[in-house]
Amino acid sequence: MKIKLITIGKTDRQEIKALQDLYTQRLERYVNFVELNIPDLKNTRKLTEAQQKDKEGTLILKELQPGDKLVLLDENGKMFTSVGFSDYLQKEMNSGLKQLVFVIGGPYGFSEEVYRKAQGKISLSKMTFSHQMIRIFFIEQLYRGFTILKNEPYHHR
């Protein structure tokens, strides 16, 4: 199974990017992982929140392949423990799924069309984090999930 993380907007802090790269590099030992960054929209001052979400949604959906499972990182999604998330990953791998696609939306969330296409929602916390920080948290949890599945000492049970 391949895992793709789609994000909106770039990471502009080098410290954050360095941590993101560290966990991405570690994760690649376990799974084919790709991050796809969709650049921030230009001239958004003239757009309503709904228009911005629709434009971002179109760009997100354009990146999906037939058979992909789309899961949104959303504040109203299901919450997991780290062990529970590793079980979720194992279940998806066992299902024969070709590609699992997670998406971190833009500043206003997701369009209605993206919500309709999604096959799941996951929340990492009831707190709100910056879109740059959530990337690190999510990639680290993917890495942690795979180390749990491999019974490696990174996650102490």
Automatic annotation (TrEMBL):
One of its GO terms (molecular function) is rRNA (pseudouridine-N3-)-methyltransferase activity. Keywords: Cytoplasm, Methyltransferase, rRNA processing, S-adenosyl-L-methionine, Transferase. It holds the Pfam family SPOUT_MTase. The keyword Membrane does not apply. The keyword Methyltransferase applies. Its EC number is 2.1.1.177. One of its GO terms (cellular component) is cytoplasm. InterPro entries: Alpha/beta_knot_MTases, RlmH-like, tRNA_m1G_MTases_N. S-adenosyl-L-methionine binds at residues 73, 105, 124-129. It catalyses: pseudouridine(1915) in 23S rRNA + S-adenosyl-L-methionine = N(3)-methylpseudouridine(1915) in 23S rRNA + S-adenosyl-L-homocysteine + H(+). Coiled coil: none annotated. SUPFAM superfamilies: alpha/beta knot. It is found in: Cytoplasm. It comes from the Bacteria. Signal peptide: none annotated. Its main location: cytoplasm. Belongs to the RNA methyltransferase RlmH family. Homodimer. Specifically methylates the pseudouridine at position 1915 (m3Psi1915) in 23S rRNA. This is Ribosomal RNA large subunit methyltransferase H. It comes from Robertkochia marina. The lineage of its organism: Bacteria, Pseudomonadati, Bacteroidota, Flavobacteriia, Flavobacteriales.
